[in-house]
Amino acid sequence: xxxxxxxxxxxxxxxxxEKDIESLQFAADIIKKGGLVAFPTETVYGLGAxxxxxxxxxxxxxxxxxxxDNPLIVHVESAERISDYALTYDNKFFETLKDEMPAPLxxxxxxxxxxxxxVTAGRKDxxxxxxxxxxxxxxxxxxxxxxAAPSANLSGKPSPTKASHVIEDMTGxxxxxxxxxxxxxxxxxxxxxxxxDTPEILRPGGFTKEMLERLIGKVNVADAVLEALKEGDEVAxxxxxxxxxxxxxxxVLVRGQKDKISxxxxxxxxxxxxxxxxCDGQVDVKSQNVIFMGDEKSxxxxxxxxxxxxxxxxxxxxxxxxxxxxxxxTDGICxxxxxxxxxxxxxNIIEA
Length: 352
Ligand code: TXA
Ligand code: MG
Known about the structure:
alpha/beta; 16 strands; binds threonylcarbamoyladenylate; binds magnesium ion
């Protein structure tokens, strides 16, 4: 692809900077003209284009090297806008969830004709999301159009949670990169289909199953969330079938009893060219190849740091493997951590 000149603009997350609106207006004008703008959200950075402009949408796929059959999420500035692009009429789950938006949540609903099929990769449904990030919502509002945006990483790489990640992947590919600080959730939104009798999580994220069930009752979790797809399996969310979130070296997941994990990791660090991703205090060995993920009890911090940690392993020289310790269970945000880690590791797990 032909490389572009990329402009990087800094804005403050709460839009308190003097030039913030001017910068976002510049970026919004680029969107209106069919260009590509990488922007911060509370989950991960997105690579956005006018969702109603087929040519602009096609250029997202080229810039990322994204497979054509993987649909994009459409971002709008408020929940009220969702029914302009999707059929929400009579959907009791949507009626409840719309009051929770903005949120790290994407709802799948039947699409209206105005959304081109290239956005949804030929599907009749569309993923709609109202990001919590003020910067993202202001950008959409100033653009005056819905913004189709996947995560702003090159396809296959960990999603970007810092502007530096986006600059690394999208310089020469996006017209504008908006630097709005670090993403606070750190994992992509929960993708929930509302097109079934019982809503189903296709991708777990910051809006947890427990939170959803308190609001709308029983919610299913798609098999593909924690299991590897078998040859020929149909997948509800095409993104699930690709190798994802992978750094350059091999990722191996470790689970088991705390003391056994510590002993195993110490041994690996001594005998192998490896790095370790674990919670504070899980390993006593002093090594610059240990990346700490915060307190074991605060797994939100683990989620926030995960993609950055995976990218950091690429900068450690001479490493062939990274051992990453999994949380103990799959409650709350841990379901999303498991889902991303299983994909980064291509389901390679050892028991300590
Ligand atoms: O947090 C997020 O969701 C970020 C930010 C930028 O909003 N976006 C994001 O987009 O993660 P992307 O394209 O990297 O992941 C979208 C996921 C993919 O797994 C895709 O297959 C699924 O959502 N998806 C999108 N539209 C869908 C649809 N109509 N039906 C089923 N799955 C869909
Ligand atoms: Mg992605």
